[in-house]
Known about the structure:
mainly alpha, 68% helix, globular, disordered C terminus
Amino acid sequence: xxxxxxxxxxxxxxxxxxxxxxxxxxxxxxxxxxxxxxxxxxxxxxxxxxxxxxxxxxxxxxxxxxxxxxxxxxxxxxxxxxxxxxxxxxxxxxxxxxxxxxxxxxxxxxxxxxxxxxxxxxxxxxxxxxxxxxxxxxxxxxxxxxxxxxxxxxxxxxxxxxxxxxxxx
Length: 169
């Protein structure tokens, strides 16, 4: 029997785009889009981290990780940090950076209002998208139903006219 060869040691000729590894309809793209377009007041963060020193993770990056963790039912900062190292959708949102669990935990502890408002925006936007999707699905289903009902009605009419003619013969 032939088996697939393991390719874990295979070097890639071109750099891999991490976005290609995630399905197009994954929720991480929705979280990314909403956090990017959201008008967050980040002046407090910029004041806190200006000047010399080790660069900090952008608050939007940490916010994306926390919100995706919430949507996946993950509350632990350690599990979110592990996902940022191992899970492709978390890697995408983190921009291939790997924040430590303490960084995620401290961000959550120090910014509960920002997280709450951002999660509220994500839920509001997602429910609007879902409403539009359901509405278009209902319209499609209603159209399909009416088309199928017309086909059934035509088929009944055709069989009744043919059954009547066959009884005459």
